[in-house]
């Protein structure tokens, strides 16, 4: 039930995504979400009854909901179309890495107290929030790893891509559902989530049925499948980018 309410809170942001983006910059929105997510996650450790736990989990879903959509929009402002797939792949490695680290970390803390586990696992969001605000530049012009001449052509190419999208038929959002690629992505994402939460929820229970396994070993084994997810999330977009570049004849293959 707690998992259901958590995921009921996730979709509320994308349905009204234009409101925050008009008043807050995307990087600030992600930072606010990190603060809220960390605080609400730690608040789970102080739940006094089951109803409070359900309410907190729903609020946790609300706090996490904007992150994926806002980060996706942020990447479109930093990476051109030819590089965007690789950027998304590298970014999604963090999802699999989180699944891998969650098992042993939770097992180590759970050995002491589950409430303390919730409090400790909420702290990294606050720590990363500081890293986020200190590391993410305000604009392409303020980046430290680009020369003074690099941002201008990149901004022009990004602006041209956005202008091309605006010229299309966007009179109604229903047009989106007429695209076969959208349905393919929806089905693929749904299947991946079924597999993800099937592993997350039931794999530890399966390993626990075997005698002789410690809590730490169960956590490590439960996180092991996410190693392949990290490999696939990184190398699949990189390979696709390489194929696209070779087809265009723009750059040699990095392989």
From TrEMBL:
Protein source organism: Cupriavidus necator (strain ATCC 43291 / DSM 13513 / CCUG 52238 / LMG 8453 / N-1) (Ralstonia eutropha)
Topology with respect to the bilayer: Multi-pass membrane protein
Residues passing through the membrane, by range: 26-47, 53-75, 87-108, 114-133, 182-204, 216-235
Domain annotation Major facilitator superfamily (MFS) profile: ranges: 1-255
InterPro entries associated with the record: MFS, MFS_dom, MFS_trans_sf
Record keywords: Membrane, Plasmid, Transmembrane, Transmembrane helix, Transport
GO CC field: plasma membrane
Gene Ontology MF annotations: transmembrane transporter activity
Name of the protein in its database record: Major facilitator superfamily (MFS)2-ketogluconate/H+ symporter
Chief location: membrane
Annotated localization: Membrane
């Amino acid at each position: 039930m707690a998992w259901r309410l958590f995921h009921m809170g996730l979709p509320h942001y994308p349905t009204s995504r234009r409101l925050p983006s008009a008043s807050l910059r995307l990087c600030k929105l992600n930072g606010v979400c990190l603060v809220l997510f960390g605080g609400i996650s730690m608040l789970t450790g102080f739940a006094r009854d089951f109803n409070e736990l359900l309410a907190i989990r729903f609020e946790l879903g609300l706090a996490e909901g904007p992150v994926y959509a806002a980060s996706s929009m942020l990447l479109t402002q930093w990476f051109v179309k030819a590089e965007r797939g690789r950027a998304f792949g590298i970014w999604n490695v963090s999802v699999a890495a989180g699944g891998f680290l969650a098992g042993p970390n939770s097992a180590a803390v759970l050995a002491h107290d589950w409430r303390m586990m919730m409090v400790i696992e909420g702290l990294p969001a606050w720590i990363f929030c500081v890293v986020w605000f200190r590391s993410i530049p305000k604009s392409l012009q303020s980046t430290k790893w680009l020369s003074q001449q690099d941002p201008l052509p990149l901004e022009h190419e990004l602006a041209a891509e956005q202008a091309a999208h605006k010229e299309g038929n966007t009179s109604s959002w229903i047009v989106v559902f007429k695209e076969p690629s959208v349905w393919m992505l929806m089905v693929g994402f749904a299947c991946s989530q079924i597999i993800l939460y099937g592993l997350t929820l039931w794999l530890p229970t399966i390993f626990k049925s075997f005698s002789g396994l410690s809590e730490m070993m169960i956590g490590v084994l439960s996180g092991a499948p996410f190693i392949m997810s990290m490999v696939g999330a990184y190398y699949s977009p990189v390979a696709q980018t390489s194929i696209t570049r070779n087809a265009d004849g723009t750059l040699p293959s990095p392989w």
